[in-house]
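Batch manifest, entry 17 of 40.
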Amino acid sequence: MAADPEEPDRGPFNRVVLKLSGEALAGDDDFGIDPQRINRIASAVSTAAASGVEVAIVVGAGNIFRGVSGTASGMDRATADYMGMIATVLNALALQDQLEREGLATRVQSAIAMQEVAEPYIRRRAIRHLEKGRVVIFAAGTGNPFFTTDTTAALRALEISAQCILMAKNGVEGVLDADPRVNPDAKLIPKLSHLEAIERGLKVMDTTALSLCMDNDLPIMVFNLDDPNNIQRILDGHRVGTVVSATSKE
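Output type: structure tokens
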């Protein structure tokens, strides 16, 4: 029997990584940061933190610069990726500012040294910040080219012993069985395994990130960020969007 979508599926999490794309910060715009969108995200994170959940955030930079786009225009791939990593710091600082307006203590940790605006990424320090109730924003990806911020989210989640990754999506309820821009009848897949997502080429995360999550049995909750209340629903244990885990069985 299918589970009631409003029935708690599992207990609350203690520590999570929220993965935000740069496009999530842009809202309906193609470029830049939408103040209303970032305000709603900060409010949702504040609510989560108030409930006692330790929250770390990994942010992308597609609203400012995408390394893949730079490569397509003839730029050296490593150079383009470094530019993208630096752009994530801009988004991290914008998030930090809004989170602190919400009254949250935050720390930005960058994988590329920028000591004037961010701490260096140090795993034990990040964990200590979380234990003290601070929100930690991981910027500059892994600090290495050829890796996406999806892989960063998987890597950081494992390093800090997070219990899951909250994968925010724009305009879709979770993982769909087809591209909704091509097939308007695309249907939501409520639960699938990491291996199925890889084999079917579903756009959950990049293959490197999915493989890392699969090898370490790290679940991914894919949900629609258009409703920021979805974050708290997931943390309360309700079924929202798509659950990607070691097995696709209920």
